[in-house]
Each structure stands twice: as structure tokens, then as C-alpha cells.
Amino acid sequence: ASLSEFVAKMPKAELHVHIEGTLTPSLTHKFAKRNSVPIPEAIRSLDTSSNEYAFHDLPSFLAVYYSAMSVLLTAADFCDLVWAYLQKAHSQNVLHTEMFFDPQAHTSRGVSLPTVIEGIRQGIVKAEQELGISTNLIMCFLRDLEPGFAMATLIDALPYKDWIIAVGLDSDERDNPPAKFANVFQRAKAEGFLVTCHCDVDQKDSIEHIRQVLVDIGVNRIDHGTNIVEDETLVDLVKLRGIGLTCCPISDSVVTKDFKGKEILQLLRSGVKVTVNSDDPAYFKGYMNENILRLADDAEVSRLELVQLQKNAFEISWISEQKREIFL
Ligand code: HPA
Ligand code: ZN
């Protein structure tokens, strides 16, 4: 089989996808029309010939990302968004996903937390019933906002604890270290949530942020985190603890000018549980298969290693034991 057929057929798990990052221009138009709201400026100014978003780093990406989501207003919007993404994932033979959402990006513009969570949940349940795809939900805090807002969001989400497996940290990393949220993560753990944090590639304080999430916060996983290759002690620590990394080749190549394929492979070969994921597929133009093929394009990776990346994903996933038995 060709490499693309091989990748397409491989059973996969996706552990790093922002549901708001699956909002395609065409879904944006659909929701704007249905809710009688204007098409966001960032979408209106798209290059209409290619219908593609334009950005060159994390802040410029985030500006478009937050602007576009203003069309998400009702539980039905969130349900439809989740359903569209999970159909796409299913079509690529993704059996299990762990999906981030950014509640503060919605509550801060007047959409209630129950609307967001109940809408997402409806989409997840529908996809589980109709497609057999399983999904865990991860609630992210926006690190460029105040920790008090994150704490209030955590407390407001407690009634939905059974639907949310973990909490995370995303948005603009510059001068927003994980330690800023130490109290929030401590409380989240006490409430029974697992913890993961974004340590985006090539940030101002990448290594210090990775150290903080491992030593000060005590995360169960790291999102991106590829810069860990620069610090042998931290690499030994994730190996010792069996902590996995959710890497995103296409996204990383937008945020950094230095593609991280070589580093991902180096970590894989040294026994770190790295995985490949899509991050914001509607924006970075690539779902799971495209990200795996991109890695294979840029680095010498064997088919056995591509299989190992998926074994890692199922292993470091938070899939229920019951489903793990069905899938594996
Ligand atoms: N990095 C940080 N925050 C984000 C991202 C990302 O890649 N995607 C959505 N929010
Ligand atoms: Zn991400």
C-alpha cells in the first residue's frame, strides 16, 4: 500500500484538538446566517480565492481564532461543530479523541457555560451513538487572562465534572507562565480532574515553562512540549513518569519557523511517549492523516514508528478501561 493508504487505514487516537479550532470558514458562514449575526471581520477579509485563514505566529493565529468564534451562540452551534469534527475524524479512522474547549472565550462574550458544555456534550453523545467514536472533554483556561477568572470558571464547571476528564492551559504563552495558575490546578486536582498544559514550541521561556508544569504543577500530559529535547534532565523525568507529549507538526510549523519533525522523532526514539495531533485543523489545514503525512514528509520515519506513535496515543489517552478493551 502507498504511505497515504497505510496512514489512512491505521486506527488512530487524537489527543490534541481545540473544538473551536475545527470551525471552518463554511461553518462560520452557516452559523452567522442561522444566528443573524455579521460574518466576523477576520473571515470576511479572507482571501476568497483560496478561502484560507492567514497568520504567521501564535498571537496572529489567536486573533483570527477568537474573532471567528463570535458566531458560536447556541447549544445547537456547539453540538453541530462537534458533530462535524467527529464525522471528519471518524472518516479518517480515528477511534478516540480528547478534545479541548475554551469556556472563557464564550462566557466572556455572554454565552453561558451550560450552553457551551451541554451543546458540546450533545455532539459527543450523538457521535458515540451513531459513529462509535469515543471522546473525552478537556476544559482549558486562557493563560492570558487572570487566574481569578480561571478559578471562577473551574467552580462554575463543577456540576459538569462527570463530562470533563481534565483541565488544560492554552492561549498566548508569552509572559503567562504555568505557575501563574498553580492554585487553579491544585484545586482542579483536588476535585478529581486530570491536568495537561500547553507548552507551545519555541516560546520565550519554553524550558522554564516545561519545568514548571512537570515540577510545580504536576501535569499528567504536556501539549506540544517538543523543546524538552534541549534538557536531558526533563526528558528523563517524563520518561520516568510515563508522561506523554501531544505534538502537532503542521501547527508547530506555523508557530515556529523551525519545523519540529526531527525533534519529535528524536524523542520517539529515546522512548518518550510522543504523539501526533492536529491542534486547530480548520486553521492549519490538516486533520490527523495530513499531520502524520507531514511528519513523514519532513523526517525519516518508518511505518513501524508511525504505528508506535498511535500506540503511544492510545496508551497515554484517558480512554475508559472498558473502551480500551474494545479498541485494543
Ligand atoms: N496554542 C495556544 N493556544 C491555543 C492553540 C495553540 O496552538 N490553539 C488554540 N488555542
Ligand atoms: Zn493546542
Explained architecture:
With 328 residues, the chain is of the alpha/beta class. It has a single domain, classed as Metal-dependent hydrolases (TIM Barrel), CATH 3.20.20.140. Helix content is 51%, strand content 14%. It is built from 17 helices and 8 strands. Strands 1-2-3-4-5-6-7-8 form an 8-stranded parallel β-sheet, sandwiched between helices. Helix 10 (206-217) links the parallel strand 5 and strand 6. The protein starts with a helix and ends with a helix. The mean pLDDT is 95. The protein binds hypoxanthine and zinc ion. Residues 18, 21, 58, 65, 170-171, 198, 200, 251, 279-280 line the site of hypoxanthine.
Q: Please name the CATH topology.
A: TIM Barrel
* Named CATH architecture: Alpha-Beta Barrel
**Corresponding CATH superfamily:** Metal-dependent hydrolases
Instruction: Trace the largest sheet across and list its strands.
Output: 1-2-3-4-5-6-7-8
Describe the structure concisely for a colleague.
This protein is an alpha/beta fold.
